[in-house]
Every structure is written in structure tokens, then in C-alpha cells.
Design brief:
Layout: E1 11-15, H1 19-30, E2 34-38, E3 50-53, H2 55-63, H3 67-71, E4 75-77, E5 79-84, E6 89-95, E7 105-109, H4 110-122, E8 126-129, E9 134-138, E10 141-144, E11 155-158, E12 173-174, E13 177-185, E14 196-202, E15 206-214, E16 223-231, H5 235-240, H6 243-253, H7 258-261, E17 271-273, E18 276-279, E19 284-285, E20 288-290, E21 296-297, H8 305-322, H9 328-354, H10 360-372, H11 378-387, H12 393-397
Parallel strand pairs: 1-2, 1-11, 2-8, 5-14, 11-20
Antiparallel strand pairs: 3-7, 4-7, 5-6, 9-10, 12-18, 13-16, 13-17, 14-15, 15-16, 18-21, 19-20
Helix pairs in contact: 1-4, 1-8, 2-8, 8-9
Bound molecules: flavin-adenine dinucleotide.
């Protein structure tokens, strides 16, 4: 930090009520700033299926006072495990305990985290402006599809996600593969571990995954997220094929999934997610900062996007708290750039190993990388990659990684 005089109360516009936007709204409103949150949907809503919160993202939620509440709605995951078929070679076996016995991932339904953040935002002094499609920003003023321009704001936070209208000069590159996702009932006494993300691959062109994701509200039924990797170009063909033909293909790769496939009765039960990649060289401009996927979109192979958005929101709040208005963007970038670059590079390298038409990469994965991943120091490095702690992003923010079972100070009244 530079020691400059921190910004006084500012008028801040946050664009996008996703994970990054909601977390930013909470952090900045609690600092006393006048926060307005713009969202395109009339009723803000989560898009997508389940995902994993890492000890990094959980550290931010803990700072927001929300870690216990989200933990009640998720499933603790201690292992990521994958086999390459038909030979059954283990090519992914990452255990958080290789790094720290108290580290875990928390697998949650997207709706569980979204609802928690949104309900908390509604209780804070945040002005919510739903149903407003942001189209541009200039000199602190925002433009919208169907409304008059609004502003000026001292700071605009672009949290519009992958397709952001505010980082449009660097459009995200579409990746050739995406995935079909479904949230299904968790099969009690079924073949899947309730504490692992499990995947099966054939070469890099086929991949299925099962993740336990807990219940969306305390007491609701437990769910699983099931996903099937698919090239963008094959999506139309998949829709036109009989569903049973596709189910046969999945069962051939991974017979245990039969119990889950029974819960999929139409193509519409599966949601398509396209993946994109982009890293802004400079995540700020004159009076604007980019956080979350609008700064760094990528495939979810490393499972870091939501965690990165939370870290960005926290870093931005630190910069706002400690810096004068003119230095906020540069300080925010300094706090996040190293970690973002490291993980974007790793994601670019790892994605084709699991999702591509390459013939060579999966052979190298199965014959060399898989066996090597069990040799020291690979288990620790892989655990740090999955936990998101590689590059020590939390130290810069004055946070500690979230540890399960850690005794936290009890607030005295
Ligand atoms: C299938 C899938 C699985 C994933 N799994 C994981 C995982 O396991 N772990 C993990 O950490 N991450 C995962 N991710 C990534 C993670 O979901 C994203 O990185 C994260 O949601 C980014 O948050 P964000 O706030 O930047 O953007 P978003 O959550 O996308 O929010 C953007 C918001 O902006 C709004 N918006 C967009 N355009 C406009 C506009 N013009 N005007 C007004 N509002 C607008 C949208 O409606 C939305 O509410 C996964 C992603 C996908 C697709």
C-alpha cells in the first residue's frame, strides 16, 4: 500500500449481480460507500449448476461472516479423482490433505451461494437496480439498453462476467469444448463418494463428472451435479440424437452413472455451458475496474472462477479502503495480477489435456503425467493448484486460508 489518503465516501456503481458483484456490493457498502448494483435480470438469478469453493474463496466468505452459513448448504470434498477408460488408469488423484489436513473444497449448488449473497445484500444499504442491461461506460456514467444514462459515479465496477459489455475491446475467446450440466438427486447408498469429485475420461474428447453439492437450503434434499463434456460443434447433433443413444455412450464410459442417468428424462434436463478464455492485461481504466470473469474468464477445469471473483472483490475493497481514488485501480491490479496470471496460464495448459481433440496429450497424460503425479512433490503442488493457494494470493490480502474445524473466536456481547 502507498500510504495515500484513503477515499472518502464514494458513489460506486457495480455492474452485474453475480458472485463477484454481490461480494463487492457487500464489502463496499459495509465500508460506508453509496453502492448501486445494476443487473440485467428483473429478478437476479444464478445461471449454471454446482461448483467448488476452495480454501481461498471460503476465506473471503469467512471475512464476510458467511462461511458457516454456506458450509451448512454444501458438501465437503477432500479428493478429486479421475480414471482414464477403458484401461482404468488413475490419471487424477488430488487430496487436499497433501497440503494441509484441514483444507477441503466445499461443493455447492450455484443457487445456494447466490441466494446467500443476494439475501445478505438485500439487508445492507445497497440500491438494487434490476432489469437494467448495461451497454457501456464513459467518464463515470453508465449507459443502458432501455434506460437513460446514469451517473456520474466515482467508481464503476465491471462484474458482468464472461460476456462483459465493459471489457468488450478484449472479447473472450470461445473454447472448442463446453459441457452439459444437470443437478440431480444424490443417490443415497449409491456408487459415488459423498466427499469426492469423480471424473472418467476417454482420450480428451469424452469426460463425465459427478460432484456431490449438498442441499440448496438447510434441510432440502441432497443433490449431485453431473456433467458431460461436449465440443461446441457437436451440440446440435447431440440435441437431434435420441436421448437413450447418448445415455448408452455415457454408460459405456462409466457404468456407475446409470443410476443418475435415470433422472434425466429429456434433453432439456441438461444445461449447456460454453467456456471462454480471456485475461485483461490491465484490469482497470479511468474510473473503472474489472473483477471476476470480466477480468479473467477461463474453462472451469481448475475450478477457480468463483473463488477468483471473491478474491478480486476482497482485493478491490482493500484498495478502496487504503488508497486515494486515483490509485485504486493500480493497487487492486497489484494485489491480484500475479495470482490471476499464474492460474490463467495453468488453466490454458491443463484444459486441452482434459477437453480437446488431441490424440497426443491424453496419451502423455495417461502414461507419464498420471504416474508422475503420485511422486513427490507433485501431490503437494497439485493440491495447491486445486486449493487455489499456489502463488500465495491470501497473504497479500491479509487473509488466512479457510480450515475446516478451526476454532474461531466467539463474539462476546
Ligand atoms: C459450468 C461451470 C462450472 C463452473 N465450476 C466452477 C467451480 O467448480 N469453481 C469455481 O470457482 N468456478 C467455477 N466456474 C466459474 C464461475 O462460475 C465463474 O468464474 C463465476 O461465476 C464468475 O463470477 P462473476 O461474478 O465474474 O460473473 P457471473 O457470476 O457470470 O455474473 C455476471 C452477472 O452479470 C449479469 N450481466 C451480464 N451482462 C449484463 C449486462 N449487460 N447488464 C447487466 N447485467 C449483466 C449477469 O446476469 C450475472 O448476474 C464454473 C463455471 C461454469 C460455466
Amino acid at each position: 500500500m502507498t500510504g495515500r489518503i484513503p477515499s472518502r465516501m464514494m458513489a460506486i456503481a457495480i455492474c452485474g449481480a453475480g458472485i463477484g458483484g454481490l461480494a463487492s456490493a457487500l464489502l463496499l457498502a459495509r465500508q460506508g460507500h453509496a453502492v448501486t448494483l445494476f443487473e440485467r435480470f428483473e429478478t437476479p438469478q444464478p445461471v449454471g449448476s454446482g461448483f467448488m469453493l476452495q480454501p481461498t474463496g471460503m476465506a473471503v466468505l469467512e471475512a464476510l461472516g458467511l462461511a458457516d452459513a454456506i458450509a451448512e448448504r454444501g458438501a465437503w470434498v477432500d479428493r478429486l479423482f479421475g480414471r482414464s477408460e477403458p484401461k482404468g488408469a488413475v490419471v487424477l488423484d488430488v487430496r487436499y490433505a497433501a497440503l494441509d489436513p484441514a483444507y477441503r473444497g466445499l461443493a455447492v449448488q450455484r443457487a445456494a451461494l447466490f441466494d446467500l449473497l443476494y439475501e445478505t445484500v438485500k439487508r445492507e444499504a445497497v440500491m438494487l437496480r434490476p432489469g437494467m442491461i448495461v451497454t457501456g461506460a464513459s467518464k463515470g456514467t453508465l449507459t443502458f439498453a432501455d434506460y437513460a444514462p446514469t451517473g456520474p459515479f466515482d467508481l464503476i465496477v465491471d462484474a458482468l462476467g464472461t460476456g462483459s459489455a465493459l471489457s468488450g475491446q478484449y472479447p473472450a475467446r470461445a473454447l472448442p469444448y463446453g459441457a452439459l450440466w444437470a443437478t440431480l438427486d444424490w443417490p443415497e447408498d449409491g456408487p459415488f463418494s459423498p466427499h469426492a469429485l469423480e471424473q472418467r475420461y476417454h482420450m480428451a474428447s469424452r469426460m463425465a463428472g459427478v460432484l456431490p453439492v449438498g442441499s440448496v437450503t438447510a434441510g432440502a434434499s441432497e443433490k449431485a451435479t453431473f456433467f458431460w463434456s461436449l465440443p461446441h460443434a457437436a451440440r446440435e447433433d447431440w440435441r437431434n440424437r435420441p436421448l437413450d443413444q447418448w445415455k448408452d455412450e455415457v454408460r459405456t464410459l462409466w457404468p456407475d452413472t446409470a443410476i443418475l442417468l435415470d433422472g434425466i428424462d429429456s434433453h432439456d434436463a441438461m444445461t449447456w455451458a460454453a467456456y471462454r478464455h480471456r485475461t485483461l492485461v490491465r484490469p482497470f481504466g479511468n474510473g473503472i475496474v474489472h473483477i471476476g470473469d470480466s477480468y479473467h474468464a477461463t474453462s472451469p477445469q481448475l475450478g477457480q472462477g468463483a473463488n477468483m471473483a471473491l478474491l478480486d472483490a476482497f482485493a478491490l475493497a482493500r484498495a478502496v479502503e487504503t488508497e486515494g481514488k486515483a490509485e485504486i485501480g493500480a493497487t487492486y491490479a497489484q494485489l491480484r495480477q500475479g495470482h490471476v496470471r499464474l492460474f490463467q496460464t495453468m488453466s490454458r495448459l491443463f484444459t486441452p489435456v482434459y477437453q480437446s481433440d488431441s490424440r497426443a496429450l491424453p496419451i502423455l497424460r495417461d502414461r507419464i503425467a498420471g504416474p508422475l503425479s503420485t511422486c513427490w512433490p507433485a501431490p503437494t503442488l497439485l493440491a495447491a493448484l486445486v486449493a487455489g493457494t499456489m502463488g500465495r494470493p491470501l497473504a497479500r490480502l491479509g487473509l488466512d486460508a479457510y480450515r475446516v474445524g478451526k476454532v474461531r473466536p466467539v463474539a462476546r456481547s
